[in-house]
Amino acid sequence: MDDRNLPPAAPIRSHRRTTAASDKDHELRGSSPGPPSSPREPHPRENRDDDTTLYSATSSSCDLSKVEENHKRQNSEDREDQASKQSVSHATSKFLGTLARCTARLLCYPPRPSGSESADATSDQRDSDPGVEVKDDNDDDDDDASSVASVTSAALRGKIENGRLYAGFGSQEYGMPMDTAEKEKLSLCHTKYFALLDQQRFLAPVGNHPQKILDLGCGTGEWVIDVADMFPTAEVLGVDIAPAQRDWVPPNCQFELDDIEQPWTRKEDSFDFIFARDLLLSVRDWPRLIDQIYRHLKPGGWVELQCISGPIACDDGSLPKDSSLNEFSAMLSSSTKQFGTPIDDPARYADWLRDRGFQHVSKVVHKIPCNPWPRSEKHKLVGAFERGNLATGLEGMVIRLFSRTMGWSPEEVNAFLVDVRTDLKNENYHCYWPYTVVYAQKPGCKPVPSG
Ligand SMILES: C[S@@+](CC[C@H](N)C(=O)[O-])C[C@H]1O[C@@H](n2cnc3c(N)ncnc32)[C@H](O)[C@@H]1O
Q: Which residues form the signal peptide (predicted)?
């Protein structure tokens, strides 16, 4: 996908909403300004009331002076962030990001074969989310009768820890950074998954005309953008605790800052499809999240959860028991458990979905080779992507985790990772990450679309 051709989009908003307005908001996120807007036909949904109330400078939740102040601070934080990320090779991660985008283009993105908001969050609950200032907004009469909140500058800026930038929003700690190096890594993984799933973005049989789609923990938003392109008449919403999404997106695509582990303030029975990918080191209570997903899907709507899981597997005994990689895998299992986000949670997705009442639960476990050791073309390619991902992404995956759970310093983490990286590159070790894809349907008939 070449996003240079995409029209400008509405900026990110917070479901507990942002103070920022339009271009200022882009700048707040420290991203480079997009190209100048070009004249174009308005999209049918562009002038919706909710867009206006959310983004116009007259919105009651908008405070431009705060935005400008945030912007200045953000610029200086960005400089600090850049300077402090010496441990990550920017050149390499940039190269990998570019490689991912080029490969995505080469893979051609073929078309997929056919195949009253419950304002249930009390202000107490919302107040418990650091980084959110809740405001009542009685003027907000969109059908998204959600709470309106300003996101504090600290939440937008994030926080630097061990030389990495982390999200500053959300009630619980997310284990991985959300800085430039991490975003490049997510881009690369987005392409890797496209190759892994035979050029599909998801497997659930959602039909050709879903109307409302939600991506939980959308990261850079590339899945949201691609799916918005696939279904131009659908509204596709991505939510995340980090404002890491791109500025230039299709008009039917929108991003919000939101913590999915807080009570959702969205309309129940309203989504045709809810998707979540790689919510690693993210979710403390999956059954509770699955309950929220269930309640917010329309009857007949689909959920799909995709995630890598651990421990690292090897089917032919080629990985020595005393290898650093084996030790790393065992440490990952115990540390993620201690952190409250066990790495083998994806193995339980299907049971949790069934327990909540979902039907037609399907589960496929793919293999992501750690390097290009397999013979098959597809897995060789996926393994090459994974080698790049692990080369640059391993530190981000564990630096906070090992520091929180084992008290390791960044130096100790990086010293340990030297041998792990060597093992990961060894093509005689036939190792892979299990990658679980589970999709399921909420029972009931799909309502006939109105209009
Ligand atoms: C490994 S990234 C995956 C991003 C994206 N789904 C993808 O596949 O490219 C996990 C994402 O979940 C987000 N996240 C973690 N905890 C969250 C929460 N409680 N609410 C919303 N997003 C969350 C993180 O900020 C991060 O962007």
A: none
